[in-house]
Write a structure and sequence with these properties.
binds 3-O-alpha-D-glucopyranosyl-D-fructose, globular, 608 residues, 20 helices, 8-stranded parallel β-barrel, single chain, 6-stranded antiparallel beta sheet, disordered N terminus, alpha/beta, 28 strands
Length: 608
């Protein structure tokens, strides 16, 4: 029996579940049982969280004061309790949304940075326990910070209880996975599938003796893709997600959303059913835990992204947030080639989102920068002058006279450009400059590039997320190479350990670290004061020289970025403008220094 009279579940829950599973035997009884379980979870929701549900406005995360921070629990704070001790530090940065990479109990041994989950309900014992998680989420909430947790939808670890039962021969659990008994069948599917880790985990299937066949493993062989065409998988995953929500998780990063539905004859990415699944999850979340938001992690070309926010009758009823990886990648391409027209084109073609939805803007994250999302743009779609992604990647790998110190990730045998690893400091040339004898000029130039990238993420439409350690310009971490457990995985290059002077202040490596910290805080504070930078405020790209990206937010804030090292003259739109960093009044034109970022506020429609 539920404690509160339950309102009706949103109709999309039933509609989409019927489309997905309506043909399966005993569907109606299954659906009724599912709704009963959801009512129980609703009743179990703690009163503080119910209060949050009641008071939260639908656009709560759209405020310009929202700022994200993304970190590994162990690399950032040691344990969940260590993270809790660092809450004042996060507050001082202005953080209101903390994405902690997977802290659920992972597979023993290699676990893809926690993305091989052995138990969705348990906490990794090296990081703490469930009580620590509940305490951390409460502590964060008191500090005005929403906890975001990964929820790995596409796969579980091969030592998850479901996989173990499947291997032991239980047919119920065997059906939780995709198993092929025929090598020819595997080969047929493979012809159309892409590879996420072509180098360290080639192929999409792993032969398993105990299963007498091949198990679908899109990522590492120990990550078994879940069979979402099985309604039990949907139910189990939904309940696990809601139990985490009842422990205080306020946002879920839905990992690898693009891969959920497999259809023969396709690349099995972004299938219609994937969206029905996400809409059904959203509807259930909205019913049981309405304060909670969902974020799609779909690292796919921009044209594939609008459906993740819901389209047609489901517009605005899928994910609340999605990564704008095309803009992130375009920003780096601009920096490599001195071409602001690349992010300008991406922004011009970025679709308008439904109400109460937004992008995640970022410079770096725990993954590589995946270049293929820009395949269409680089080949000249939308009248953009073509560019070579291979040249962009080469720049960040330090080829030629580049001072970047990134590294290639997962180069495919076919030689196609895949991804690049490295911290922002390394990619912007700051790490190299730090080791240069006559350093002042090189340091300043690299710092300017670093801040250009962050000033863009902070001004572009969306919720900006700082990647752990960037706020103090941490360099690459090469130590993974001598650690046998991590040596094969190049992404550890940009997962450094944060060192602390005290829980409220990380150790600063040098004057550059301190300048980046100060400057970044200044940009953040400025952003917080500008309602024109709300997530949902309009964004209009304006004409600018090729090296420059310039866009207007709400017709009142003009953000300008010079991606070349040369000085460029920028003609300003009519009116009088205040340069918010220089506190100077401007009209006519603005000479931009190399790699300069400016935010101008309109003070009047006419020149003085
Ligand atoms: C996600 O990544 C996670 O962010 C990665 O850390 C995990 O390894 C992966 O899932 C498996 O859980 O394709 O859309 O570097 O961009 O793997 C999902 C490649 C993904 C990642 C890619 C990504």
């Amino acid at each position: 029996m539920s404690l509160i009279p339950p309102a009706l579940p949103p109709h999309l829950l039933e509609t989409q579940l019927r489309r997905l599973y309506g043909h399966s035997e005993g569907f109606d009884a299954w659906l009724l049982a599912l709704l009963a379980r959801l009512r129980d979870l609703q009743a179990l929701r703690p009163s503080t969280l119910r209060a949050l549900d009641a008071q939260r406005r639908a656009d709560w995360f759209c405020d310009q004061r929202m700022l994200g921070y993304c970190a590994y629990v162990d690399r950032f704070g040691g344990t969940l309790r260590g993270v809790a001790e660092r809450v004042p530090y996060l507050q001082s940065l202005g953080v209101r949304y903390l994405h902690l990479l997977p802290f659920t109990r992972p597979r023993a041994g290699d676990n893809d940075g926690g993305f091989a989950v052995a138990d969705y309900d348990d906490v990794d014992p090296t990081l703490g326990n469930v009580d620590d998680l509940v305490a951390l989420s409460a502590r964060l909430r008191d500090a005005g910070i929403s906890l975001c947790s990964d929820f790995v939808l596409n796969h579980c670890a091969e030592d998850h209880a479901w996989a173990r039962a499947a291997r032991a021969g239980d047919p119920h659990y065997r059906a939780y996975f995709h198993v092929m008994e025929d090598a020819a069948d595997v080969a047929d599917w493979e012809t159309r599938l892409r590879q996420v880790f072509p180098h360290t985990a080639p192929g999409n299937f792993t032969h398993c003796e105990a299963m007498q066949g091949w198990v679908w493993t899109t990522f590492y062989p120990y990550q078994w893709d879940l069979n979402w065409s099985n309604r039990e998988v949907f139910a189990e995953m939904l309940f696990a997600l809601l139990r985490a929500a009842n422990r205080g998780v306020e946002a879920f990063r839905l990992d690898s959303t693009g891969f959920l539905w497999k259809r023969r004859g396709t690349d099995c990415m972004n299938q219609a059913e994937t969206h029905w699944i996400l809409q059904a999850l959203r509807a259930a979340v909205q019913w049981v835990a309405p304060a909670v938001i969902l974020k799609a992690e779909a690292i796919v070309p921009m044209r594939e992204l609008p459906p993740y926010f819901g389209e047609g009758e489901a517009r605005g009823q899928e994910c609340h947030l999605a990564y704008h990886s095309s803009l992130m990648t375009a920003g780096w391409s601009a920096l490599a080639l001195g071409r602001g027209d690349i992010p300008a084109a991406v922004l011009r073609h970025t679709p308008a989102l439904p109400a109460n939805a937004g992008w995640i803007q970022y410079v770096r994250c725990h993954d590589d920068i995946g270049w293929p999302v820009l395949a269409a743009e680089s080949s000249g779609s939308g009248r953009l002058r073509p560019f070579a992604l291979a040249a962009v990647a080469a720049h960040f790998h330090g080829v030629g006279d580049s001072d970047a110190e990134g590294e290639p990730f997962q180069t495919a045998p076919t030689g196609e450009v895949h991804g690049s690893n490295g911290m922002t400091a390394a990619l912007c040339g700051l790490s190299r400059a730090r080791r240069t004898p006559d350093r002042q000029t090189a340091l300043r130039c690299a710092e300017t590039r670093f801040l250009l990238m962050y000033a863009l993420a902070l001004a572009a439409p969306g919720l900006p997320v700082i990647y752990m350690g960037d706020e103090i310009a941490l360099d690459n971490d090469h130590s993974y190479r001598s650690d046998p457990a991590r040596a094969h995985e190049g992404r550890w290059l940009h997962r450094p350990l944060m060192a602390w002077q005290s829980p409220s202040q990380p150790q600063l490596a040098d004057a550059s670290a301190s300048r980046i910290q100060t400057e970044l805080r200044t940009w953040i504070n400025l952003r917080q004061s500008l309602p024109a930078l709300r997530l949902d405020a309009s964004c209009t790209v304006i004409d600018a020289p090729t090296a420059v990206l310039a866009f207007l937010r709400e017709n009142s804030l003009l953000a300008i970025f010079n991606f070349s090292k040369q000085m460029v003259d920028m003609a300003l739109p009519q009116g009088t403008w205040r340069d918010l960093r220089a506190d100077a009044l401007l009209h006519g034109s603005l000479p931009l220094e190399g790699y300069a970022a400016h935010w101008l506020q309109r003070t009047s429609e006419t020149p003085p």
